[in-house]
Amino acid sequence: MKIRAAVLDRMDAEPPYAASKPLHVQTIDLDPPGRGELLVRIVAAGLCHSDLSVINGVRPRPMPMALGHESAGIVESLGEDVTDLAVGDHVVMVFMPSCGQCLPCAEGRPALCEPGAAANGAGTLLSGFRRLHRNGADVNHHLGVSGFAEFAVVSRRSVVKVDKDLPLDEAALFGCAVLTGVGAVVNTGQLRPGQSAAVIGLGGVGLASVLGAIACGAPRVVAIDLADDKLRLARELGASHTVNARDPDAAEQVKKVTGGGVDFAFEMAGSARAMELAWKITRRGGTTITAGLPPPTAALAVPLVQLVAEERTLKGSYIGTCVPTRDIPRYVALYRAGRLPVDRLMSAKLKIDDINEAFDLLHEAKAVRQVIEFAS
To answer: CB atoms < 10 A from the CB of 285, how many?
Structure first.
């Protein structure tokens, strides 16, 4: 079938993207779903820094590639052996398919699925196939989803069914921003009521972490960013304190309001400087967690004696250490109970033809979560 999709051909475009237009919205071909796959009509797709990091080359991927990974839609048809879904079901896409058989999957860590990671790196679906084509040549899939498109063929292992009364523009956020941000707090950190937290980097994932820490019962949640408007939003969402990272005494400000540092510092900005700040504001015996995905060359120098003598913990978190079939329904339930107001993270709704201009706003840190809406 013919579909419209946003395709990236090269990773060297310079901002402003409204002028360089790295993404070309064009008509390409989509194969029917194969064994273990399904066809989804995309209704909504969020713009994430993981998409931007492919555009600017920070996270290299094979080209050409149809971008988009934070999406939700409606099942249109089922491939062979997909028996637990039906046409018309509403689904959220997850950007790491899990095979269910490798060692990480067997250990209950599907976010670290080895075949899933290999497929994502190669630009294929979990099956190893590419279902997208242009002028007779393959187009690579982005993280098994390629959600900036009218339709997508995805692995059954890349979707989670959700209730039909959940608006799909809101549902899309649960596939990345909420899974990653809330999951870092709930699963990776296992923050307990009464413990304190700081979040550095208030994009969609970082603000979701703020919401997660509040939902877990943290009495002190410090939100840290360079942008005053995002700090304002964090306060509106319930952060107890905010600190502008530009302030030379930012670390001391955090220590002052938390009595020496936080139990958990979450780095969500994807930069070495943010990670250094996260380490500085973590108290003795505390935990520093990063989910920011910086450039591959970024490094952190940690004094080993401090790591030992202060019994500090340094952890990475990928997709919030999630089990999607467990976590997405839980987070949706918290949202419906008013404890995770993730709808407040949506900055704007737009059409796919405005995608390059929208990535300028994301690049300039002028948006939290912009959502592309497709005709329903």
So the answer is: 11
